[in-house]
Write a structure and sequence with these properties.
The protein is an alpha/beta fold. 47% of the residues lie in helices and 20% in strands. A hairpin with a 2-residue loop joins strand 2 (65-71) and strand 3.
């Protein structure tokens, strides 16, 4: 292995990621504007804020972790394509102590990028990981009301939010479904219910489209607060992107 390798995030990839994230923020703000309820609007705004501040750490891999097992005549396997992690640091100032928390999203670069462009599957995974901002308790009532059990609520919410963004950005129904069809192992017996909800997202009913055309008070209608509101969603040029050197071996 050479002493100095090409960086995982080249200038072209960094520029592409910045562009992608700013486009994601714009899409989320549009969805917030069209929300039928205050709760739904808050979820989109929270995800937009996450997109503006979260740091990504890229690894020179196709998957963060993967495993294949053969049990009898059947083969089982899984692959982790992204994960959200938190770093806790204890800071002492005199007789006072406080804990600082930093959140990161770990991603395999070979999954996210195709050459210098963000791949379709990479985009869907990025949106899914961005949606992991609240934990199970944050989405519990929202998801359980849809018939998804508590233990799978966070994963379901992340999938549904990613599908919403993807559909708004022009991803086809088939592309989103193909990306999600392997989730049967995650949702088990509740997978048919999960799939029905996903189909409703990628193929909205006339009633759902009608509701979207009657948004609650727009975030753009706050007069003097507008400039302050938009400032929260301005993503730094490079400050929010972490880079890791290729791992040896």
């Amino acid at each position: 292995m050479a002493l100095f390798e090409e960086p995982i995030l080249s200038k072209e990839r960094t520029k592409e990621l910045d562009k992608f994230m700013q486009g994601t923020i714009s899409t989320l703000l549009q969805l917030a504007d069209e929300s039928a309820t205050k709760r739904e609007q808050e979820i989109y705004l929270r995800m937009a804020k996450e997109a503006a501040k979260i740091k990504f750490l890229f690894y020179d891999k196709k998957a963060l972790k993967q495993s294949v097992k053969k049990v009898g005549d059947k083969i089982y396997g899984y692959a982790i394509m992204g994960e959200r992690v938190s770093q806790m640091t204890l800071v002492t100032q005199g007789d006072k102590k406080k804990i600082l928390r930093k959140d990161y999203i770990n991603m395999p670069a070979e999954h996210v990028f195709h050459e210098d462009m963000i791949a379709t599957k990479g985009a869907l995974t990025l949106w899914h990981e961005l949606a992991h901002f609240g934990g199970k308790s944050h989405f519990r009532r929202y998801i359980e009301r849809l018939g998804i059990p508590y233990h799978a609520s966070e994963e379901a919410a992340a999938d549904f939010l990613a599908a919403k963004v993807a559909r708004r950005q022009g991803f086809s129904e088939d592309t989103i479904k193909e990306h999600s069809v392997g989730r049967a192992g995650v949702f088990g017996r509740s997978f048919p219910r999960y799939w029905k909800i996903l189909e409703g997202i990628v193929t909205p009913t006339k009633e759902a489209m009608k509701r979207a055309k009657k948004p609650i008070k727009s975030i753009w209608e706050r007069g003097k607060e507008k400039a302050k509101e938009l400032k929260k969603f301005k993503r730094g040029r490079r400050g929010s992107i972490g880079m890791l050197a290729p791992q040896p071996g």
